[in-house]
Amino acid sequence: TVPDVHNFVANDFITHNTECMCIMILWYSYTQANKGTNNQYTILIITPYESQVDLIFDRLHQLIDNSPLLKEMITRDIYHRIELSNGTIIKGLTASSKTGTGAASTRGEHADILILDEIDYMTSADVTNIYNIRNEAPERIKIIVSSTPSGKHEEFYKWCVGASYKYFPSQSDIDNFKFTNFK
User: Fold this and answer.
1) Helix count (H) and strand count (E) of the chain?
2) How do residues 62-107 score in pLDDT, each as one tens digit?
3) Which residues contact 77 (CB under 8 A, 6 or more apart)?
4) How would you classify residue 102: left for phi > 0, otherwise alpha for psi between -120 and 50, otherwise beta?
5) Alpha carbon 116 to chain centroid distance?
6) Which long-range contacts (CB under 8 A, 24 or more apart) does 26-32 make?
7) CB atoms within 10 A of CB 47
8) Which of 139, 157, 179, 182 ranks highest by number of CB atoms within 10 Å?
9) Tens digit of pLDDT for each residue in 12-25?
């Protein structure tokens, strides 16, 4: 992190977790990189708080409004749900961490990509129930997480400090925008 503001400027863009996630969401929605066998492609965004879902969808709308290609692909846009003509559905939910319901709103959901933002503010029960969505096809369904650390030392902390794979990019990976050299 960068002291005080916790973000930095890269190529004239202010960069932080949510910005990066929004760009990834739009890239996956357009490319459908790990699409399953059905004709629908679902990106499920889950945050602990409604205000964070609002923030993500506000930024997604700003980015879409600046892209004629993406803008013309929208077939439906209702509260925390954007549908595109290529079959992509971008849907936002909350884990309801304050209520202690263990992310009950996510039960029965399906996804090709799970985006968990501010995961360190979710309970272990929330994360477990959300993670169960991936059990449908763990080899295909991707999970992308980020958070501002809260100091709780729960799931997010364990994932970060106990990762079994670490990435050290080779010069070839850097030159070719690939991620092949995990150790």
Assistant:
1) 6, 8
2) 999 999 999 999 999 999 999 999 999 999 999 875 555 555 667 7
3) 83
4) left
5) 5
6) 26/60, 26/63, 26/64, 26/67, 26/70, 28/112, 28/113, 29/70, 29/84, 29/86, 29/88, 29/90, 30/69, 30/70, 30/73, 30/84, 30/86, 30/88, 32/86, 32/87, 32/88, 32/112
7) 25
8) 157
9) 555 567 888 999 99
